[in-house]
Structures are given as structure tokens and as C-alpha cells.
Amino acid sequence: MSLAALSFPLSSSAFHFSSSNFKNLNCFKPPNATSQQIPLNLSSPNENPSPSPSLNKTGVIVVGAGLAGLAAATRLQAENIPFLLIEASDAVGGRVRTDFVDGYTLDRGFQIFITAYPEAQKLLDYGALDLQRFYSGAQVFYDGRFHTVADPQRHFADAIQSLTNPIGSVVDKLLIGLTRIRVLTQSDYEILTAGEVKTIDLLRSIGFSDSILDRFFRPFFGGIFFDRDLETTSRLFNFVFRCLALGDNTLPKDGISAIPKQLAGKLNPNSIKLNSRVASIDYNSEKGIVVNLDNGESLRSDLGVILAIEEFEAVKILAGKSEVKVPVRSTVCLYFSVDSDKIPVRDPVLFLNGSGRGIVNNMFFPTNVSPFYAPPGKGLVSVSLIGVYDGVNDEELVERVVKELSEWFGEACVGSWRYLRMYRVGFAQPNQCPPTDLMKDPRVGPGLYVCGDYTTNATFDGALVSGRRAVEALLNDRVL
């Protein structure tokens, strides 16, 4: 199992990173994509449009090139509907971004991809992503040492040996197996529309002890939801638990941004417009729906507009037509480099903080999963915290993390690590505490639709599903 719903990553305005040690970041841009004015017309997206600067309209305008927007654009192109995908930042991906620096692959926040995501299986070429697998389990730091939690379906011997360790009782581990059976007998739709409670209340009702709640579930699923209190809806817990049971936890060989890169690579590059921030939308215009950009340019849609941006940004544009549930979920991710021969473990495993103290929630060595994440002879360390620690400066935060992990791996080991970069992710996920509607209608008004993980579930898959649903709603409305 793994922290697979970390979302998931990051609009340019939603995070801060320290970059004193690095220069010349290279972010993905779709092949031939441009941030300049491009001609828009109603030709098929599979045709090469003729230059026509006087035209400023298209069929559908998709605002935001994160996973939801890319999924919407993919569906529009499959339906042969002309569209323009506009993005405020300099590259596609939204919260799913990677920086490539001096041979290191630094995902913007800790993110893991689960192969069992149903929508992703339809849209992505897993072979081309060259997915690198994690160990199906975790090492939990408790009482001064590490203890194994293993998936019995994949690592039976490890699971048997771990039955008597202090990370929960034997009964707790049997209850995990029963919970696995329960979610596997339900469909995704049944899970996402079932009655809901807080995850912590669900786990207690199942009968899990405080020891396994505190030592495993809080750091593991708390890291997934950025919510150690486990107040997130049981619907999301059950969906993620089902995906974990069915799939492998992986990283693409070339970083998490390979996922949006692959989606964008299948689109007509002339349909993608970067560095274009939306200022407002006039959806009562007699000329159709008009999208006004910060640079003064106005774009007209003949068929509809799909807002595939973060919830708080959509609320601003829609002038209060939606409410953002607070607090939003935040995280800090720190990266360190280490000489390959000084990495303390070789297994591609996730480490969890089950001690109940300290600020580290989880960490791992990305180069144990994919050696391509660092230059030859080097390893990479990824450390995740929950919250953004606004009152703590970068230097103090690094010092506290190093001190804490020295207790895990020893001062001599951690003392050789070199700090690389910090990402403070102010908006990592929407808040999905009960009550939730994970099947939200994407319609906002005539010809205006929203999508994003906040309209479905806060996973990679939820974002992809939301983009498809927005286009399906638009198509249904056009037929009526």
C-alpha cells in the first residue's frame, strides 16, 4: 500500500519552494505549445487550422490544464469537437508537476500513482509511463525501531511474521483482511454513493484498536488525506482502500509529471494556450459565453465553457456561486540528496511515523523505487509533513526534520544528506469531510460547467473522471 491520493500537486499560485541551491528549472510544455496568441476556429481538432488572427472564438473553452482539464480536452478531441485549453501557468499538469534539476527528479509534493484507478486505466498508456513499483506495505517507526506492515496477498511471509508486532493486534490485522474483502465486493459507484461517516468513526465501528489507529492508520491514511484526525469521508477511504487492494503503487520512471505530459501529448498542440490567466467570465453575454483574460483578450465559446481549476479559484470567477469547504488540506515536502552507498535501506518501501510525536508523517527513498530519480551514484530522499508550518522558516524546518530522522536512521547516516529543496503546498487537496457529494452535477449555468477532484473524489482518478463528466454533461445539454 502507499500514499496514493496525494494530489496531486500544485497550481503555480498554491505553493512556495526554496530554490537557493538550484537554477534553470525545466518544466514540461506540450510539443510545439505556445504562450503566444493562437488562432481559434471551429475546425476539427484533428485538422491544422489556418492562421486567422481575426477569429477569437472556438467551440468549447476549457480553463485549466491540470488532470481534470486534460481529461476534458481528451474527451472533446475524441468527439471531434473544437476546443481551446487555456492554462495560467507555463506548463500543463496543475498540481501534478515535476522539476528536473541537476539530474534529480523532484515531484512537487509526494505523489504516488495507483495502477487500479479505473478511469486512469482507460486514458493512460501504462507501458509508456514505465511505472516503477513500491513494496506493497510499509515500515512503521515505533518505539525506536521499524516494524513491517505487509499486504498478505503480495508478501505473505512478511505478513505472517508481522502478526505479532506492536503495530496493532492480531485481531486488528484480521480486520484489515475483512475490510479488504468488504470493499472488493462493492462497485466504485456503490462506494462513492454509500452512506458516509468520518473515516475515524468507520474504523472504530469496525473494531480497530487505538494502537493500530495511532501507529498505522493515522500516518498512512492521514498522509493520503493530509488529515491525521481522519475526519475525511468514509467514501473516500473505501475507494482508496479498494484501489490499494487491486493495484500496485508506482511512480512513472520520468516523474509524476509524465502523466499529464502523456495526456497533453495526444492533443493538438495548437489547441493548448499557456500563460493565459482568466480574469472573469461573462456567461450572460448575447455573444455567447465570453472568457476574459488578464491580458485584456476576450475569447468566445459557441458551445460552452468548462472550468477545470481549483475550487477556490472557481469560486472567485463564479462570484460566489459555490462555497469552499475549509480548512483545505496542505503539506510540506522536503528533498535531500545522498550518496548511493549511504542509503540505509534498499527496499522500495514507504516509512511511516507511528511514534505519535515529531513532525515527519512519512518518508521514502524515491531512487529505491526508480533509480532514474537521481544522477548516477546518487540517491534521493523525500520527506512529507502535514500542514504548511507557516510560522516556521525553511532553515528551522530542515533542522527539525534532520534531527527527527537521525533518530530513525542514525546521526552518521542522516548527517551525510544534503538538503535540496522544499515545497510548501498550500492547497494539496480539497477538504472532503462529511457531508460530501462525490457525484456532483458539473452544471453551473447554461453552457457553463465545472470539474476537478473537489467535484468527485480527491484522487488522480477523481480528477480524470470529473473532466469526462463535464464534457458528457455539455454533450447531453447540446442534444436536448
UniProtKB/TrEMBL annotation:
<dbReference type="InterPro" id="IPR036188">
    <property type="entry name" value="FAD/NAD-bd_sf"/>
</dbReference>
<dbReference type="InterPro" id="IPR002937">
    <property type="entry name" value="Amino_oxidase"/>
</dbReference>
<feature type="domain" description="Amine oxidase">
    <location>
        <begin position="67"/>
        <end position="475"/>
    </location>
</feature>
<dbReference type="Pfam" id="PF01593">
    <property type="entry name" value="Amino_oxidase"/>
</dbReference>
<protein>
    <recommendedName>
        <fullName>Amine oxidase domain-containing protein</fullName>
    </recommendedName>
</protein>
